[in-house]
């Protein structure tokens, strides 16, 4: 489990984005199309649905990040997270102790081919990296981002990036668990 960050660091977030992309590549490299789409024996989302959920949530965050970044309010760090912010980050990190049902808006409902799904994820990730880069030298605590999950929740800009990345690690961990139930999948991780 990664160390829970106590403050925002754009460079760390950009490294994490690269690590997540590498993890997705490793996860999907040996999966056939059928394995990618197959739900686990115990029920739940397939690897494809885990990735599709991340695409849906990531794309929803992009417009919220754009609105927040538009303020352009500059600031100097360190941009420390509150105790509550760190607790929320811990909740999102894998392995999760509690399952939370997603809203209908973020529930994957269509199957796309593996290559197309991965391309769509990487495109969203490229956009995420652009927003993280644009946040350098901005007030990563004072600028607030509206949650795409509940409009009444607002996160500090930096925390919202770390939350999105923790959420991605959570669902990639879930996808690894699914892949272990499939024939011929690597047992490491």
Q: What does the largest sheet look like?
A: 2 strands, antiparallel
Count of structural domains:
1
Tally the beta strands.
4
Q: How many individual helices?
A: 6
Strand content: 5-15%
- Fourth CATH level, the homologous superfamily: dinb family like domain
Give the overall shape, derived from the CA principal axes. elongated
Strand order of the largest sheet: 1-2
Question: What's the order of the H and E elements?
Answer: EHHHEHHEEH
The CATH topology label is Four Helix Bundle (Hemerythrin (Met), subunit A)
Q: Ends: how far apart?
A: 11 Å
List segments where confidence is low: pLDDT < 50 over at least 5 consecutive residues.
184-189
Radius of gyration: 17 Å
CATH classification, class level: Mainly Alpha
Helix content: 40-55%
Architecture (CATH level 2) name: Up-down Bundle
Briefly note the structural class of the backbone. mainly alpha
Overall mean confidence score, pLDDT: 89
Kindly summarize this structure in a few lines.
By secondary structure, this protein is mostly helical. It has six helices and four strands, in the order βαααβααββα.
């Amino acid at each position: 489990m990664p160390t829970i960050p106590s403050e925002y660091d754009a460079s760390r977030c950009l490294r994490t984005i690269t690590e997540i992309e590498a993890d997705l590549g490793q996860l999907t490299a040996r999966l056939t199309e059928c394995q990618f789409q197959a739900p686990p024996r115990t029920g739940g989302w397939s690897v494809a649905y885990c990735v599709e959920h991340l695409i849906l949530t990531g794309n929803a965050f992009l417009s919220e990040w754009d609105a927040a970044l538009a303020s352009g309010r500059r600031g100097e760090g360190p941009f420390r997270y509150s105790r509550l912010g760190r607790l929320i980050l811990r909740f999102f990190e894998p392995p999760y102790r509690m399952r939370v049902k997603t809203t209908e808006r973020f529930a994957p409902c269509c199957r796309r081919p593996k290559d197309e799904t991965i391309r769509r994820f990487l495109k969203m990730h490229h956009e995420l990296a652009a927003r993280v880069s644009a946040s350098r030298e901005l007030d990563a605590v004072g600028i607030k981002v509206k949650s795409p999950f509940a409009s009444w929740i607002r996160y500090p800009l930096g925390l919202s990036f770390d939350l999105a990345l923790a959420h991605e690690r959570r669902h990639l961990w879930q996808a690894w668990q699914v892949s272990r139930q499939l024939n011929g999948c690597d047992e490491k991780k």
